[in-house]
Design brief:
The protein is globular, with a radius of gyration of 12 Å. It has a single domain, classed as Winged helix-like DNA-binding domain superfamily/Winged helix DNA-binding domain (Arc Repressor Mutant, subunit A), CATH 1.10.10.10. It starts with a helix and ends in a 5-residue tail after the last helix. Strands 1-2 form a two-stranded parallel ribbon. It is built from five helices and two strands. 31% of the residues are buried. The protein is mostly helical. Helix 1 packs across helix 2, helix 1 packs across helix 3 and helix 2 crosses helix 3. The structure holds a DNA duplex.
Length: 103
DNA sequence: GGCGTGACTTATA
DNA sequence: ATATAAGCCACGC
């Protein structure tokens, strides 16, 4: 696989329990902020769902991926709630409180 | 090597 | 506030 995917996966692995990160944020931490789309592509490939918590990556508005491969948004929301992530009334993640700092 | 595609983002109307 | 346009990069054919 290319280095880009490897870096992206590396960043996603660093997301601590109870926090989430946006695609753009992951792209920026991976080295290039314009990889936002590539991040989505990489997570879609998701070669190691056991080590890569792709459910901790959400859109800029805290919206979840509609095409989540492991059971849809319901499943993703359940996993995030299990990690202690706070949700808003509309079902989106409360980024103000749960967005990963990047450390 | 070119072309189309996508789990995105930002800008503009 | 929502809708539409453009930019951006890696991957597969």
């Amino acid at each position: 696989m290319g280095d880009t995917f490897a870096r992206i996966y590396e960043v996603v692995r660093r997301i601590p329990v109870g926090y989430v990160a946006t695609y753009g944020q992951v792209a920026a931490l991976a080295g290039n902020r314009r990889w936002a789309r590539v991040v989505g592509y990489a997570l879609h490939a998701n070669p190691d769902p056991h080590g890569i918590p792709c459910y901790r990556v959400v859109s800029r508005d805290g919206k979840l991926a509609p095409a989540f491969a492991f059971g849809g948004e319901e499943r993703q929301r359940a996993l995030l709630e299990a990690d202690g992530v706070a949700f808003r009334a509309d079902g989106s993640v409360d980024l103000a409180h749960c967005q990963w700092d990047g450390f």
